[in-house]
Structure formats: C-alpha cells, structure tokens
Amino acid sequence: MTLGLSLGVVVGYLVVALALGLVAYRVSETTAEDYYLANRSIGTLVLLFTTFATLLSAFTFFGGPNLAYRAGPEWLIVMGTLDGVLFAVLWYVIGYKQWLIGARNGYVTLGEMLGDRFGSTGLRALIAGVSLLWLFPYVMLQQMGAGEALVGLTDGVVPYWGGAALITGFMILYVAVAGLRGVAWTDTLQGLFMLSVVWVAAAWVVSALGGVGAATEGMLAARPEFGGFGGGAYTPEFIVSTAITIAFGVTMFPQINQRFFVAKSAATLKRSFALWPVLVLLLFLPAFMLGAWAAGTPVEVPTDANVLPVVLGEYTPAWFAALVVAGAMAAMMSSSDSMLLSGSSYFTRDLYRPLVDADASERREAWIARIGVAAFATLAFAASLFRPGTLIEVGDTAFSGFALLALPVICALYWPRTTRTGMIAGVAVPQAAYLLVVLSAVVGAVPTLPKTVLGGWDVALGLMALSGALTVGVSLLTAPTEEGDASRFAVAGD
Amino acid sequence: MTRLRSDLVWIPTFAILVAFAVPWPLWGVDRVAAGLPVWIWWHVAWLGLCAGLFALFVRSGAWERGMGRRAGTDAVAADSAAADTVATDSAAVDGATSRDPSEPTGGDRR
C-alpha cells in the first residue's frame, strides 16, 4: 500500500507542476521574447528562485548527498564556495554586463550577442553548437537522478528506466506547453517548496538520531576522517579545480546565461546578488549534512540508489519521503525544462534560422523548437540508460565543457581589442581537446586520456587557461574584422 | 567616467571572499563545536559575511560605477514606476524605449 501512496504523491506533484505551467501558458503572449524571456519582466523573487531552482538539480539533491555520504561533508564547502561566492561574483561580472548589453540591443541568446558583436554567423553557430553539446549530459543527469530516486523510494519495484522515462515524459510535455513564464512560476514554487522540505527532512532525521550533536558523533564514530577538513578525495587541487570549473561553467549554461537577459531591472539583479550566498547555504547545509550524517546510521544504501531517499525512507513516514523525492524530481524537471527551453532557443535562433531557413514563420519556428526538445530529451533518455558515470561525474563533465566558454566570453565583454579569430580559436580548440578527453573515457576503442594535469589539477582547468590564452594571444595577432563592432558592448551610460 | 579610486578595493575584497570561503586555515582540524565540525561553522559565517558585503557593494553604488555607469540610475525604470532618475541616463532610456514603450510603466510583476 505504501508503494501506491509513494507513487501517487510523486505523480500527483508532477501533475500539479504541469497544471501550473498550463496556467502560465494561458496568460503568456505568443512572441518569441515572451516564450523565452517572459518579456524581460522577471522580478526579484522569481529571478532569484528561477536561477536557484535551475541549480536545484539531481546534482544537488542526489549527487551531493551521495558524495557527502561516501567522501565526507567537505562537498558543502566546495559547492558553497563555488555557488554562493564565486558564482555571485560572476553574476555581477558576466551577468550584469550581459544584462546591460542585452537590454540595449535586444539579445535573447549568448550566441546572438557574440555573433552580432563580431559580425559572425559562424561564431554564433559555434557557441550554440557547443552549448547544446554539453547540455546533453546535464539533461541526462536529471534522468539518471530520477531513475535512481524512484529505485530508492520504491525499493526497486519501479525500475531505473521507469523513473527516467517518467521524468522525460513530463519534461517534454511541460516545455512544449509552457515557455519561460511557466517555467519561472513553477521554479519559484519548487524553490520555496524544496527549501522548506529539506529543512523539515533534516529536522526529522536529526531528531530521530538524537540531535545534531549525536548525529555528528555517530558520523565520526563510523567515519572518523569526516571530522577533519580535507583529506581523502578532497585534495586542495580537487577543491580548487571543481569550484572554479563548476562556477564558471554555471554562468555559461544556456538556462542560467539566458536568465541574465530576463531581469526586469538592474535592481532585481542587485537584490538577487546580495541574497544569493544565504540562499545557497540554506539549501546545501541540510541537504549535504543529511548525506554525511547518513554515514553514521545503520542504513544500508543499495549501490544503484541515492542516499537521500533511502535515509528518508528509514527515518520519516512514507508519504513524507515520497514528498521529498517528488519535490526533488519536480525541481529536476524544472531544471531540465529551463535547459531544454533555452537549448531550443539556441537551436532555432542561432542554428536553424541563420543556417537553414532565415524566413521561417514564427509558427514554424515554434514547432521546430518543440520537435527539437522532444528529440533531444529522448536521445538523452536513451543515453541515460547506459549510466556512463556517477551523477557527480556526469554533471562535472557538463559543467567543465561550459566552463571552457567563460574566459573567451569575459574577454569579449571587457576587452574591445578581442577579434573574431581570437574568439573562434579560444572557443574551438579547448572544446575539441576536452571533447576528446571525455570521449576517450566513454568509448572503449580509444585509449583513455588523463583527466588531470600537473599533479592533480582537473584537465578542464588547464584547458580553461588555454582558452583564455588563445583568445588573448590570437586576438593580438589578428586584426579586428570589418563586420565586428566593439561599440555594441559599450555600456558606460554617460 | 564615474569610477572612484576607492572602488578598486572591491577587487581584492572579492578575491579574499572567494578564496577563504574554503576554510584553508582549518585544513586537517577535526574539532567539533556545537554539533558540527568547526570548519563548517567557518563556512557558514563566511557566507553570511559575503551576503553582508555584497549588499554593501550594491548599496554603495560601486555596482553601477564598476560598469562605468552613474550610481543611482537604473537602465529600465520598471521597479520604481517614476522615471525621474532614469531621465538623466539618456542611453538607458533609449535602450528601454526601443524595445517596448509600454514596459517602463507596466505593472507586470510576475
């Protein structure tokens, strides 16, 4: 009976989120600006939560506690530093600058902005293509997370593929009908919901364990090394590499980067910026500590399940555990929706229109976008069935791929001397190299390339440095093209 | 240019805020205080400090000056329906009106 209850709660929650999207769809206009950017009318609370909820993914809810359970609570430090502090600084450095430029010139995508600045359709298409490439593993990550979550919640009665298929279906349906306004609404709802529910979950489990002190004592009795900062998997190189690649990567995620264009006013961006570290901490502290504390409990976590649902299943009533899993799945769904939606705008605006059919009608474009989303999500679902790595590994691959875009973009935003050739070299070369490293790990026929360089530093961090050096170096060696126009990025108002 | 020399202090400030969000001085320390390892408390306090300083950065106007803009202006006057401050920022008004003339007064607060 509890199985039926659990599944009922999960599916019911997903249906409510879908209904909310439909309401949003009814009040939305049908223009591309509204579909993708909600007419640039997103206010502080919604902007904050929509960005926040986009970070609320399987990576946070399942991957994070899993890692804390296995390697120790230092993951809180890594994620808190990168999301709470470094990302906030980049929010200003990249985000605010993009907002100023976007509001002036009406851009909707990163590729559009750079393509216009450098007068290059090729660059525009390159940025869009690279972004879609790395979006793929991240969407896959959500499907893997959902599959594993339902295995954990139902003790394996719902198979892994069933959970992954369920979330894929909802994802496609949702994006097809709602657009950004719908996504932003449900993001806010889910952000608030998950924030409260994670604290309730932590309180429930902690009180069952006899308080915070007892929970930590239990953890230290089972895993004494969890008490000291660092050690084990957490080397300084790992902490620095991970924090930098993920934080820079996050800013280049289509769904996050597109958020930089949607704020209603600068005041909205400013308030979100100052609230960010606190919000991040409020989410990560209970979520990751639950994972770490679980190491001190007698709970057995099956190898292909996530820690969080298993622990909740042990210490909280079935309906509550189901509610948390439902909330996490819905949050993952909204992450995926945002991603797919932004991905589809990259696809139609930066690839389909400039390269295939410049005169496609709005109606046709909308259909192309929806078909593209369905195809993309289905392919990601198929790939997720192979489970090519842990949640953290797959997520980190995607983040690193995006991170390689960040330094060339910062160059373009702040250095008027940047040239088109410099941008193309700075983007294309490190991307090709990283793709090779990733493929060599997945494809058996190719010898596996090393994932770290110079004694423990993530190869992506090295390639990031290369991307910056190439952009600057090649720009200095080449002359700006006639089609380029650095004044497109001038924002000094007076 | 409206940048102030004193604003430059924000650059090392941000660098320190990012660098020490990781409790490096407590590397290897395994003391527990109030139920959690002390280095977790460091991180919690540090993120609180960040939020405070970020708010100060915004309020002092360095946020705008850092982009070469005049403090106190807002490129789209949507948050305060009155467009008084924005009128001084002609480029921003251009940016706003070229898109949608009805937007600055619109009450669309979703």
From TrEMBL, chain A:
Membrane topology, from the record: Multi-pass membrane protein
Pfam families: SSF (PF00474)
InterPro entries to which the protein is assigned, alphabetical: Na/Glc_symporter_sf (IPR038377), Na/solute_symporter (IPR001734), Sodium:Solute_Symporter (IPR050277)
An individual GO BP term: sodium ion transport
One GO molecular-function entry: symporter activity
Keywords, sorted A to Z: Cell membrane, Ion transport, Membrane, Sodium, Sodium transport, Symport, Transmembrane, Transmembrane helix, Transport
Location within or outside the cell: Cell membrane
A GO term from the CC aspect: plasma membrane
Transmembrane region(s): 6-25, 45-63, 75-94, 123-140, 160-180, 192-214, 234-253, 273-295, 315-333, 367-386, 398-415, 427-447, 459-479
The keyword Lipid biosynthesis appears for this protein: no
Alphabetized PANTHER family for the sequence: SODIUM/PROLINE SYMPORTER-RELATED, SODIUM_PROLINE SYMPORTER
UniProt similarity note: Belongs to the sodium:solute symporter (SSF) (TC 2.A.21) family.
Protein name: Sodium:solute symporter
Organism the protein comes from: Halorubrum ezzemoulense DSM 17463
Automatic annotation (TrEMBL), chain B:
Compositionally biased intervals (Low complexity): 88-98
Highest taxon, organism lineage: Archaea
Keyword line: Membrane, Transmembrane, Transmembrane helix
Compositional bias of kind Basic and acidic residues: 100-110
Region annotated Disordered, chain positions: 88-110
Membrane-spanning residues: 7-27, 39-58
Protein name per the record: DUF3311 domain-containing protein
